[in-house]
User: What shape does this take?
Amino acid sequence: MPQRQAVVPLTLKRVAFANRQHQNDPSVTPNLEVFDPLRCYRKRHSTTELKSKFQAVQLGPDVNTFGYRSQACPGRYVAVAEIKFIMARLRRSDSGETKGDIC
Ligand code: HEM
Assistant: This one.
């Protein structure tokens, strides 16, 4: 049910998208309540056609974390690399490989 209706001709320049609701839809992400770190890895390896899909930086109709098409986030490669770096540092410090401050 539309919440608003245009009564005069209108050209939208930007459109907001309910990404969280979309990604949390069970038809898009089944078994959402289960922590599954290999969810995307398994999708990637399920067929040869999907081998290069479901990457963290990838855009697509079912993955809008970084936007889509011409408005997509140009900083997504930096963002994902940084998140991986932080996770690796945390894991390293957690496994006792470092002493004291991790930064
Ligand atoms: C986890 C981190 C990040 C997330 C989730 C994120 C997500 C997004 C999203 C959803 C958009 C909007 C796309 C749209 O308007 O449809 C966007 C745009 C943009 N992002 Fe990011 N972003 C992140 C990090 C970064 C970083 C690190 C940079 C720069 C180094 C960056 C630079 C930009 C720029 C310049 C735009 C505007 C693109 C345009 O309108 O053409 N973002 N980002």
